[in-house]
Structure formats: structure tokens, C-alpha cells
Amino acid sequence: MALLLLLLTISQVFAYYEAGGFGFNGTLHGKNNATICITGTVAANTYIGFGVPQSVDLPFMISADLLVVYGNATGVHLIHGHGVGAERPFFLSDADNTTPGLPYVHLLSRQSSYNAKTSKLKACFERPVKVDFAATSGGRNLSVGVYTYLWSTGRVVDGVARIHRDAGVVEKVQLFGGLASKAH
């Protein structure tokens, strides 16, 4: 029985990636549910962003499915939305979006924490792998295969994510499987 439990536990360990000083990993639950955890050291009210671009060929914020997580004295917080294009890219939060079905990303409070003394943030969230209304909401599907993801960091002021101070792309990620990897 203990061996079976150990094997089941091992089968739930998926690839861990690092980018911009932050780590993230994913766990697949069935065919359409995923848990993504993001970890890093950030000051209070400083976010770590995770994004699913429109395509591997267009790894940009515009039209990407974007999520920011941050911690402060009141706990861990999640803001989900997508990048929209105008004169310059900006972030449209689900709170400002009238598309039915939002939000489809949910913070897992029991698995998330922020330690103000060490500035360590761990934020886990649950979301579907495939988003049925992706084309209209700005939502993007997660890839079960190799894909490219976005990361960013910046300040949160009064619950609003400000423009990132640093950002990048993590290429050739197999979020749900494969060996551990370090990306830049």
C-alpha cells in the first residue's frame, strides 16, 4: 500500500521551470483541469506575472491570457485578465470584463502563502486547460505539449497591477511533464 501511495505521489510531480528569478510548475488533473504554482522572492505588493501568449510565434502581452499574483499583510492575491492592444499594451482585468464565464482562474488559498519577513511568495491557482470561449475573452488554452510562456514582475497599487518593470519569455516549456528545466 505504501509503495502504491509513493508511486501515485511521484506521478503527480511535474516539470519545474525558473525564469526571472521565479519558479513555476504545473500539475494536470484529468483532461481539462490544471494547478499552476508560482514561487519567488518579492516585496509586498510586488507581483509575479504568468502569461499564455496567443501563439508561440507571437510571445507578447497583447492578446495573451495573463495572471498576476502578489502578497501583502492581508494574504496572497490573484488578478486574472488579458493583454489588449491600444496605443500601448495594457492589462484588462476580469473585474473590468463583461464576458460570461469569467473568472475561470481561482486562487488556491490553502496552498498559497506570503511571508513578509522573508518576502517569499507561493501562489497556486486552478484553471481549465482548455478555455471554451478563448477567442472572445482573451483567454488562452494551456498546452499539454511544449509551449512558450511569459513572465513579468511589477508593482501593485490599490489592487491594480502596474506596468511591469521586468519581463521575459520562457521557451520550450513542457508544463505538464518532462524533466526539470531551467529557462532564461
What's the gyration radius in Å?
16 Å
In the CATH scheme, what's the topology name? Immunoglobulin-like
Helix content: under 10%
**Total strand segments:** 13
How much of the sequence lies in strands comes to over 45%
- Total DSSP helices: 2
Poorly predicted parts: 1-14, 178-184
Give the second-level CATH assignment, the architecture: Sandwich
Q: What's the CATH H-level homologous superfamily?
A: Cellobiose dehydrogenase, cytochrome domain
Strand and helix order: HEEEEEEEEEEHEEE
Cα shape: globular
Domain module tally: 1
Keywords: Signal
Organism: Rhizoclosmatium globosum
Protein name: DOMON domain-containing protein
Signal peptide: 1-15
In short:
Helix content is 8%, strand content 46%.
Notes on the protein architecture:
By secondary structure, the chain is mainly beta. The chain has a single domain (19-173), classed as Immunoglobulin-like (Sandwich). It has 2 helices and 13 strands, in the order H-E-E-E-E-E-E-E-E-E-E-H-E-E-E. It has helices spanning 2-11, 134-137; strands spanning 16-19, 22-29, 33-41, 46-52, 65-72, 75-84, 90-93, 106-107, 113-115, 120-128, 147-157, 160-161, 166-173. It is globular, with a radius of gyration of 16 Å. Residues 1-14 and 178-184 have low confidence and may be disordered.
